[in-house]
Specification:
By secondary structure, the protein is of the alpha/beta class. It has a single domain (about 1-135), classed as 3-Layer(aba) Sandwich (Rossmann fold), CATH 3.40.50. About 35% of the residues lie in helices and about 20% in strands. It has a 5-stranded parallel β-sheet with strand order 2-1-3-4-5, sandwiched between helices. Strand 3 (about 65-70), helix 4 and strand 4 (about 95) form a beta-alpha-beta unit. The chain is globular.
């Protein structure tokens, strides 16, 4: 099974950025744990702060992967383009968020990805990614 994990802007700062919201471990450390927990899954990880690069990656893997897990960060709430890219592909997509976006600022309550995703997992910290992986199994 091949799963692509896409993280958007500022998620490269996990472990440093607002640890009270996002925790204190880096995504790379977490990804190592995830790969150990699911040794039969081939994970590809991609992070970018650039919207178009995220869209390119969705399109690149969107017809060949078994699943895409996406945390588009702030682009979740602003990018019609990412939402359209998810809508255009055939690979199932799970949208994840580390924090409970509904307990935060009101602009975080809107997602342009959710209407086109197969599911949404929010508010379980990095465990949100584990839950997304489980949804594909």
């Amino acid at each position: 099974m091949n799963i692509l994990i896409i993280n958007g802007p500022n998620l490269n700062l996990l472990g440093k950025r607002e640890p009270e919201v996002y925790g204190n471990i880096t995504f790379e450390t977490y990804l190592t744990q995830l790969k150990t927990k699911y040794p039969n899954i081939n994970f590809t990880y991609y992070q970018s702060n650039i919207e178009g690069e995220l869209i390119d990656k969705i399109q690149e893997f969107g017809f060949t992967s078994n699943g895409i897990i996406i945390n588009a960060g702030a682009y979740t709430h602003t990018s019609v383009g990412i939402g359209d890219a998810v809508k255009a592909i055939t690979t199932p997509v799970i949208e994840v968020h580390i924090s409970n976006t509904f307990s935060r600022e009101s602009f975080r309550h809107q997602s342009f990805i959710s209407p086109n995703a197969n599911g949404i997992i929010i508010g379980f910290g990095l465990k949100s990614y584990d839950l997304a992986v489980e949804s594909f199994l």
